[in-house]
Give the backbone structure.
Amino acid sequence: MKKIFFVWLLIIGYQLSVIPILAQGLTLEELLEKIDQKDTTISDIKFNFFQEIEISLTKEKYQISGSAVYKKPDKVYLKTFTGEKTPFPEQTVVSNGEKVWIYTPKYKQVIVEKWESLSKYGFVPEEIFNYVDSVKKLDKNYELEYSGTENNLFLLSLKPKKRKEIKIKFYISSDTYLPLKTELTAETVSVVTEIKDIEINTKIEDEFFHFHPPEDVNILSLD
């Protein structure tokens, strides 16, 4: 079953047998177990987010806000809002688990794709998009580094084994075991995402994840 942790990898090196670093009495393996246990209690999750994107070469910074809804096992609704000075257009990305609708109001365009093709649009690198089925098996595709705590948040860093220039750091609540902040760094860009207004198990209907395009848009179907 696809996990809630995937959605953090969306808007995110040690093996589990490595000598453990202690933080609030938890080892790395115990922390991952707590995250996995929390995941089993969640059927859907909603949250708002704020991102700051910095381009390494030019030092340009852009800000994006948005909201996200995820329902197990594979339904996603993501909406972003951007300022006038950013090069990134506002978008709505919706998936019912089979199809993905990518709606860009600025261009009056909707792209319809298969879910498996989402990574090619650059929302997340391919290595991150190819998530694992269990948090406890993250070491299959990632190098893990557990750095203890900061401001009562657990710090967990991931590096895709196939692209080690990418690093994702999660700041995980010690109360809920859900990420409240993520930092993604790569060769040319860094993205800091703050997560707030988290709601879980809202019993959202499946119909919410079926996009109905406006009448005046151009629909490009690639599925």
Notes: The longest helix spans residues 28-40. Residues 5-221 form a domain with the outer membrane lipoprotein receptor (LolB), chain A fold (CATH 2.50.20.10).
